[in-house]
Each structure stands twice: as C-alpha cells, then as structure tokens.
Amino acid sequence: MTELTGVGVSPGVGFGPGYVFTREIPVPAPDARHGGDAGAERDRAAWALQQVAADLEERGTRAGGDAQEILNAQALMARDPGLAAEVAELIEAGTSAARAVYEGFGRYREMLVEAGGYLGERAADLDDVRDRAVAVLEGLPMPGLPSRGPQPYVLIARDLAPADTALLSKDVVAAFVTEQGGPTSHTAILARAMGVPAVVACPAATSIAPGTSVLVDGASGLVRPAPSEEEVATARKTAAAREAVLAAATGPGMTADGHAVPLLANIGGPRDVDRALEYGAEGVGLYRTEFLFLDRTTAPSEEEQEAAYLAVLDAFPGGRVVVRTLDAGADKPLAFLPPSGEEPNPALGQRGARLLKAHPGILNAQLGALARAASRSSAKLQVMAPMVATAEEAAWFAAACRDAGLPSAGVMIEIPSAALRASDLAEQVDFFSLGTNDLAQYTFAADRQVGALTALQDAWQPALLDLITLAVAGAVERGKPCGVCGEAAGDPVLACVLVGLGVTSLSMAAPALPAVRAALSRHTGEQCLLAAQAALAAVSAQEARAAARVHLPGLAGLAL
What we know:
Layout: E1 4-5, E2 7-10, E3 13-21, H1 38-63, H2 65-78, H3 81-92, H4 97-115, H5 117-121, H6 123-137, E4 153-157, H7 162-165, E5 173-178, H8 186-194, E6 198-200, E7 213-217, E8 222-225, H9 229-248, E9 263-267, H10 273-278, E10 283-288, H11 302-315, E11 320-324, H12 353-358, H13 360-375, E12 380-385, H14 391-404, E13 409-413, H15 416-420, H16 422-426, E14 431-434, H17 436-444, H18 454-457, H19 462-477, E15 482-484, H20 492-501, E16 506-508, H21 513-521, H22 525-537, H23 541-550
Parallel strand pairs: 3-4, 4-5, 5-6, 9-10, 9-16, 10-11, 11-12, 12-13, 13-14, 14-15
Antiparallel strand pairs: 1-8, 2-6, 3-7, 7-8
Helix pairs in contact: 1-2, 1-3, 1-4, 1-6, 2-6, 2-8, 3-4, 4-6, 9-21, 11-13, 20-21, 20-22, 22-23
C-alpha cells in the first residue's frame, strides 16, 4: 500500500505493528421479541444501561484528566431519561431489550446528527454507549483494546470512542490513526494529552492489513505502511533530534529577544496538576470546572468546590490560575439543571454563561467558593465566563465577580460577535481568553467532529486569524491582556504567529508545552510579527502556514 495522508493532530513519530480496531457487536435482529414480560425486559434494559454508565465512570476515574471529563459526559448518555423512555416504549410494543436499545438509540442519534454542532459531535459517543449496552444484554464482552502487546502498536480505526482509548498510554500505543475525526475530536484531544502521535481524517486507513508495520508522522499527517528500515531510522533520528531540542528549552516562556509569553496548562481539576508541573507550566490558563458538576443529581457543595479549587491554586504559589466557570448545556447536560424548554438546537441555545444567568444560585455558589479559596492561597486567581456574546453579558459577569469579592473577571472569546465587538467587551472585564476551537466552529458553521469539514476547522484559516486579530486589538485598546487557551496554542508554529498578533499568554495541553517553549525561544518578537503578517495576507490555511514558516527558520530543528 502506498503512503496515506491525513490530518496531523498530535506531533511526533510513532512506529509499530498496525492494530486495526473494528467493533464486532452484532446488530440485534429487527424482529427480535421478548417473552411477554415487558416489565422484566424494561428492568433488563435499565440494568444494562446502568452497567455501562458505571463502567464508563470507573474508566474515567482511572484515566483522570480530559478523559474523565469526556467519559463522565458519555455516562450521562447512558442515564438519559429521554433515551430510557424511547427504549421502554419499544419494549412495551414487544421488542426485545437489546433491539429496543439499538433502535431507541438510533432514533436519538438521528436527532443529534440533525442538530449538528456540539450535539452532532456526540453521535459517535452515543453509538459507543449503545454497543456497550447491547453487549451486556447479549452476554458479550464489551468493545475493548489490548492493554499490552510485545511492543507498542499503531492503533488504526474508522473512529474511536473515548472509552476505547482512555486507559491506554504511550507505553502501549505508538500512534493513533483514524479515518474520521478532526483536530478537536476526542481522539485528537486525548492523543495530545497522552503525548502520542496521531493522524485523523485519513481515508482508507482501515484497509491497512493488521500486523503491517506502520510509520506515523503526527505533525505532517503522513502514514506509511511497511516502511523501509532506512525510512524508520531516518524518522527515529529526526524524532530524537527533536526531543533533544525540546529538552534544551527550559524556563519561562519567552522569545529569543526576551519578550515574556507565559506558558500555561489546560486542566480538568487537581488530578492534572502533576502533569502540568512536569512539563513546566507556569500556571493554569484554563481550569475546566465541569468535572465537579457532571454526573450528579445535585450540585456540589461550596465546601467541595472550595477544596478542589484550593488544591490547584496551592500548586502554583504566586502563579496565575485562570478558572472557567461552569460550562454546561448542549453536549454537557446536568441532571440538576433541566432545560427550561425544548430547544431545536441546544448548541445555539441555553448554554455557558446563558445557563448560569438563568440559574444565579449555581453561579453565586461557585464564585463564592472561588473567592474563599483565593483568600487562602498566594496564587493569582482569575475567573472567566464561557460563551459570552455581548458587552451586556460581559458586564453582568464582571459585576457578579465583584459582588463575590473576586478581583479579576474575564470572558472567553469563542463567539464571532464577541471578537467583532471586542473593544466593547474589554471595557467591561479585566482580560480575554480566546477559545479557538469553538470560535472556528461558530465562524465557519463547521461541526468540529466531522472529518469532512476538517479544512474549515483549521486554526490557520485566515478568517479565524482575522477574528483573533480583532479580539487582540480590542483588548489592547482598553489596556487588557488577551491569551489563547484553545488547541491552537499548542501548535508551535501557530504559537509564534499568535505572539506576533499580540496574544499575551498561551495555554494548552501539558505535553505540548515543551515544543511551544522551544519554538518561541528560537525566534524574536520581530520574526513572530513578520510571520503573523504573512499568515494574515494569505488566502487559505495552507498558504498561511507556509507563509508563516518562511519567517520562522528556527523551526527546522524541531521537525514540526
């Protein structure tokens, strides 16, 4: 087989025997019926879904980090009352439990796909829950992957569910290759968190014969089946040289001419702190607080929240910790915050700051817990709201923070309207943080989980760079800092461009920190500015990337 090309989403070189993962859960027959006891069959279906939910939560607890947040959200699907009602209705009509689960989830899946956006992204996760429940009902083993082999293997699949990969490590998997997915798919996020090379949106990848040696370049997106010994040796030599460059870059983030650019970590809670410190994070640029709230029937107490926040603050004495308030709604529903009414497209509905505004008690409790934690720590706490669209919303959030005794309130810029009127928003708050994943999705109306739309999700798209430029200009006009906490910050080349655009800090998955630190240390602020200007002048993402690299000669040693 000739060389394949996909989208590189986690840098590095991986080599090993290919393991082609396919789901083998048989589809229950369309005419499968139960024996007549609908009540008993309903109980069986409920029990199976509960088993799946518990298994997903247990995997999440063992995995920690981003994986725990993702798996907890998936467990909520297994416990969704709407899905349970669909299944029960089918069972009442005589359908067997296994077939009812299959059909009921299928109906719900169609709704998610039609909704698109965040909900559309969850269709693959829903399929995984369905397959696991069917396996339990049919007495079959749940889908799974080898936890160990003679050597690390290259995992190849059409797509991967979070539960498939959550408990793997770089000692087990040399690289990921999937036919579907995009730069911000779960596979991409987890691969970066693990520090494992990954290529997504790679057509025909599953046609690679199992056991074939595969060489994967997670930066360029190249996948080479049956490479020659010389090709493998060259790739390994390049990777070793890159690792040496990364190891040599230490200390705070800064350009070659001494311009400081704080390099921060994205975390999901206290469990991620050790890894952030291991990779030299100077603080936290995005503390996702959802993990405290997901999969609960009641909100966490203020005491529980305070303890979780204090554990992270204490890990960075004197450093910056940016906390995002609860980002719920859409694909992250909360049992104790039911929707106020039917929403045809929840991704564009009551979510993020809008949901918090509708439930002020939840927000006030969180802000109070954060204020008390900050009073007990020397870390510099900053609090920001997600999905803010207008200056009025920014002013409302800033006032709520002031009332709680929090000195620094900011907003995430992830809706085009916020970037377009950034100056108005900056007048109301103390800082911005650009969420490039959602900003791209909403700018291009492109579901970030759809592999066919990967080109529109590319953070190098000039239109997205234009919006980032507007947001930074609005912040500068009001004398406010503007960082980036989206996945774009972890791209060493784009990180230099972002600094050239005026971004003041970069926050990313911890394993991406060394490469970004090295890239910045090899270029001056003037080179970053020239690279940014060249990228803005381009008319496509590919041209922007290539134009920027011309002004960043120090990237050669990083083999990016």
